Amino acid sequence: MRLRVGTASFSLYYLSFCVFWSAGDGAHKGNDPRTKVTAKWVQGVRRMGLNLNTNPPQVDVERARQHRPSIVIVYPVKVIDGRRVVMHGAGSGFIISSTADGKCIVLTCRHVVKGSKGFDPATDLLRIRFLQGVEEDMQGQLILEDPFLDIAFILVSNMPIMLPALRFAPGVDLPVGTPVFLLGNCFLEQLPGCNIQTAIMPTIPTVSPGGISAPCKVEYGPHITRREIQFTCPNKAGYSGSPLLHEEKVIGILGRGAYQASLAVCTENLITFLETRLGVDEGTIPVEDLIQMLYQYRT
């Protein structure tokens, strides 16, 4: 039997069926063929690098909640006839840098910014909603994007307070079974001035724990190699652009969500992309200094 590698949820469900089937009458006998089939299946799944532990990895939820002020909602709006404002998409994002002079950099997914109808920076608006300390939604400026990695960097100015930023950590080499968690938004609410329903910031962003479920997925693009972490944190509409964290540091950004097998672009990809676009030699300056250069970047 040949199975698709990376389909962790199917593998676990099928394994559960095999275990249940082998537990019937006579399964305790050493010569029962069902026991042998189950044992071979377990060995095969382990060789594929999949996690057979059905118990969810332990995540310190209380400590995870401390990072919620860094989570934002990103929603573009389209101005029609100079008066009517219609939202055409929304998602999550997170602060990766913040300064004392009222500026911050937000990272999200490109498809959150572009929406289903596209985004024209000359006429459309890019709005950012913060969890605390900022009563009004702020105007954002799209400064850098990449369609292959599905990432977008947004500059926000005139912030009334300095909010905490999340820090990056490597994610490519983390083993299967490593505990991780998402911080994002998954509730629906009507936004003021808009006439459609979309994902919007709840009172508190959701902490969604899980674990890395398969080896890093690699896809080759025209200018960069995309590496994605497969993980099991439950998520739904509104989570796009959420940070994937391990030990309170960002190891990826959620781009493609699914209940059992989601994918996050690794932070290593984000750093390589910034080095290329900013003209910096690989590994020559710290990540924090690299992100600081975005405040002076002009497209």
From TrEMBL:
UniProt-listed PANTHER family: SERINE ENDOPROTEASE DEGS, SERINE PROTEASE
InterPro entries tied to this protein: Peptidase_S1_PA, Peptidase_S1_PA_chymotrypsin
Keywords: Signal
Stored SUPFAM superfamilies: Trypsin-like serine proteases (SSF50494)
Signal peptide limits: 1-26
Domain of life: Eukaryota
Name the record gives this protein: Uncharacterized protein
Naturally occurring in which organism (per UniProt): Oryza sativa subsp. japonica (Rice)
